[in-house]
Amino acid sequence: MTLAVLAYVLLLEAGLILSTTCRGAGSIGGSDDARSRSGSDGQGGKGGAPGRPVWPAPRIGFPRGPGGGGSSKRETQSKKPVRKIITFKPGVSALEYNTILESVGGKLVKELPFVDSIVVEFPPEAAEGEELQQILSSDNVIAVEDDYEVQLLCFFRSSLNYDRQVVPWGVKRIGAPDAWQVGTGKGVKVGVVDTGVDTGHPDLKQNVKAAVDVTGSGSGMDYHGHGTHVAGTIAAVNNEIGVVGVAPEAEIYAVRAFDRYGRAQISTIVEGVRWCVENGMHVVNMSFGSKDESTALRMAIDKGLAKGMIFVAAAGNSGRDNSVVFPARHPGVVAVSAISENDRIASFSSRGPEVDVTAPGDKIVSTYKNGGYKSMSGTSMATPHVTGAVAVILSANPGITSRGVLAKLMEGAVRLPGLSRNEQGSGLVDVSRSVGASPEKKEAGAEDKAIPA
User: Fold this and answer.
1) pTM
2) The sheet that has 364-368: what strands, in order across it?
3) Left (φ > 0), alpha (ψ -120 to 50) or beta: where does 265 sit?
4) Concatenated DSSP letters of 340-371
5) Can you give the CATH number for the domain in which 125 is found?
6) Which pLDDT value is given to residue 104?
7) N- or C-end of the chain: fewer Cβ atoms within 10 A?
8) Are residues 158 and 113 in the same domain?
9) Catalytic annotation, residues
């Protein structure tokens, strides 16, 4: 798993991955164009040969429990327009092409010039029409996909109040307090593509450097709570109140891509990633996912990877094997599964060969909207532990490359007994080991052992 991420980044930087997009005969239908993926390690992981597209995993059903996430509602409804993302070859004028699409009832919704794409709405009858199919089969069109809905990957728990600062169990479990003697995330720019952030939260406002919006609402404020919770795990301030994050001096740049109900279209996520790339984020947290692949989002992430950025994403909440969601299964993204406090794989956590590391994700206490605190669970909650660890490694090693960070992250991971590779990847993140700090004593039985096949 780890080697696959490192290999992908290396190949991308070397220009050997010429394109991560490809359009087949079924591409107009979006997810119906799924194909099998072949790992470079021969185990079906996240690898890919140079110049070859890496296709999404087979479509998988997901539970519809509260905040279960990982699913996208793709059924065409007869009375609703159909939104498509159309991606063109570089140099093709997408707007000029839109004139042709208008001739068959298409209506431009937005432009995505960062990835040479446009979002177009079609009447249902036109979306299935032969004339449109012929237009979109042009050699100038790289891919066509539904502008589907992306889900947050969390379960809400209880609200909490504290009269003094506590160190959440997850922050302790990955060795963050010991690592602070070496690095605290100071100077590291962390992009959080999510529901926004509570900019006035007393445990966050010192570290929130920007809160921007790409939804069109005009505000980066968090009216949902998920983004504030994620931001707190990454970088809640080390003070005398509330909680403390993994990297308590990291800089948070909240990018609101989800609405107050926790909903987002893939095109809005692309815009969020674009903002992170164009504004020089060092690491980007993506606590969301879908069972469906996206060419446009893959291209946006690749642009960031080529600049040396690091992307960390939630594996998913299906609770089954071979169910890692996108973008976590992108070969250049660090995919994070979740464990509970007893070092067992969390019952809700997705598993699969794409998992790179695991982190605490069950009953995680962090900041919440309106200045509050809440316990939440999900791979959404595991992911910011890893993002925070990346920030600590970066601050402890000035000038280190993204490949160097990933190597330290994976080498420091502790392999948990009884968990398979599909469940934990390289193991439980331990940032104190990654930065060479005195490691916190592990619980009995958690020593580094061979991983069961």
Assistant:
1) 0.83
2) 155-160, 372-377, 364-368
3) beta
4) -TTSSBPTT----TT--EEEE-SSEEEEEGGG
5) 3.30.70
6) 83
7) C
8) no
9) 194, 226, 380
